[in-house]
Amino acid sequence: MAFNLAVFKTRTLSAIIFAAIMLGGLIYNQWTFLALFTVINFGCWWEFHRLMDKIEPTYKDLPAVLKYLMMFIGFAYMLYMSNPVSYPLGNWNLHELGWYILMGLSGVFILGLAAFYKKISFNNLLSLLAGFLYISLSWGLMIKLRGRLNMYEQTDAGLIIPIVLIASIWVNDTMAYITGSLFGKRPLSPVSPKKTWEGTISGVVLSVMIISYGGNTFMGLPFRLLILISFMASVMGTFGDLLESKLKRLAGVKDSGSMMPGHGGFLDRFDSLLLATPYVWLFADMFL
Question: What does the alpha-carbon distance between residue 260 and residue 270 come to, in Å, rounded to a whole number?
Fold first, then answer.
């Protein structure tokens, strides 16, 4: 793929603006972190429904109320995954509130299935479940990562893994795009013809190097931890990108949306993070 300076400038400018908004939401406090991923959750769900309408003709017949209910069930799951210490609400906390909302909405969803059973196919139910696992499960685990260390009163420590994870994805995507544009010759997969083996391998290697040395030098983070998380995020992020490319190919669209000029929609921007987050959470939960 030839290097296009105009496209690169557009992508770079929109990425800078996007990065500023992301960093503000990520770093300011735990509430802005939750608000940021709440917006991302609903944006991803909206685009997922649009893609499924094109992929599966009968999906359009699925009652809109069930689609919206699943979006809010995903949001309630995110609240449930929050750390009780991090999100107090007087005598309550967001974790408890999320549980009650989740149970209530799930009950309403079951009633909706009973009311509209003639309009619902088994494939459509599987599609809704797949959407929950693909989108809201990942963002719920991201909220879990954000709060996992706050239980020990280390408020900022909960940011370390999410920041390393997201930075690894960004560096990998950027380096893969640049090196693939300049030196890429061998296509990585028919699903995404613009991706090359040269760009993919270079992106992973450079991401691990930059994140590991940068995190260790400037933040004093453990070198081995940085290597493992950045490698896992870069590799699984690449698979996440290919998965979303497959969905777009099935739907016959170039981008899932138009949220960012040069980058597409929410799913285009967060496809790598969607697949990488569960694996990094599993690693953190088992070994940290």
Answer: 11
**First-to-last CA distance in the chain?**
40
Element (DSSP H or E) covering residue 125: helix 122-131
Q: Which domain holds residue 252?
A: 5-287
Q: Is 195 left (phi over 0), alpha (psi -120 to 50) or beta?
A: beta
Helix (H, G, I), strand (E, B) or coil at 93: strand
pLDDT in tens, 203-222: 999 999 999 999 999 888 88
Q: Which two tokens stand for residue 204?
A: 């992973």
7 or 68, greater pLDDT: 68
> Can you say whether residue 222 is alpha, beta or left, with left for phi > 0 and alpha for psi between -120 and 50 degrees?
beta
CA dist 50 and 48 (Å) reads 5
26: its two tokens: 């990520």
Total domains in the chain come to 1
